[in-house]
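Page 47, continued from p. 46.
Same chain as before, 363 aa.
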Amino acid sequence: MKQASSPLWPTLLGAAALLTLSGVLHAAPSELQWKNHNQSLVSEHIIPRYQHLADSSAALASSTAQLCQQPDQAHLDAAQQAFHHTMDDWQSVQHIQFGPIENLMRNFSMQFWPDKKNLIGKQLNILLEQQNPDTLETAALYKASIGVKGLPALERLLFTGQLDELDNNSYRCQLTHTIAAYIAENSAATVSEWQQEYSASVLQAGSEESYYDDHQEAAVSMMKSLVEPVEAIRDQKILRPLADAEKVRPRRSESWRSERSVRNIQLNIVSLQNLYSGNENSVDLLLRQQGAAAQADKISALFNELVTQMKNVSGPFTTSLYQPETVVQLQQISAALKQLDQELNAAMQTLDIQLGFNSRDGD
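Result:
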């Protein structure tokens, strides 16, 4: 006589419980968790960084005005230093590619790069040749090519050429100030729009006043700002100038004229690390709350490894890329970034986030 088969559901429930305890199954974060997460990133990460950019770019505009009034080496040095402060702050918020920075294509106007067809050089040379005084109004730059109104164009004007080209309030010097003033104007508008409108839209997700249907949808933009830049840093800022070990191309690197290619990458990675774990309701905390502590630990370790590796990279790339040890270091960093990209994408699955279209595809 056959024995009656025991019900299967207790076995399944027990297996599910074991899986949950072992961290294999994870419940998606709640709407409240996403709301708290988004609020932390807006108030602790995004707005302060845009405020720093607005402050430093305003100082840059002032410094270039003083340079035109007194075009000596001391004022040029001061303007170059102000450029570095502004670029530091831009690199520290460059990963935020949604919200007010998209208005009027401010993100591309701030930094059109990589410039594969030398659009900046061509357009800038036209302006310098024509010397049309109408182009010295910031209003004119809103209609100008994106190649002549951002940090890369300003870098060319401040870090190439001769000091005497800035004498007598020259067109070149006035254009330098106009571009700096345009950058400051757009930086101020970006932080103002975050403070006055966009932050409320994020925090009130699900309401009629918001661009977002719920807090998880708002979080997708935040998560893209964490995940997508990793691939961009690897492909554009490291592999593109690295090319291959036999023939490196330093002039493909970002900001090579101002000799800050290494610093840009350092700031990018530290900023992403802060976005991941440096806020009160961080991604790192969300993963741990969902029972994925091992996953969180692995990502944290990769960030720490990358920060340490980048500190050991010598600059500028215009000379250090020709050194075999630098090539090896960058290849190792590239591999670590690829691993970090994979781990962060896996973390999105744990958090039930669908990133969708990669806004950086085709770059």
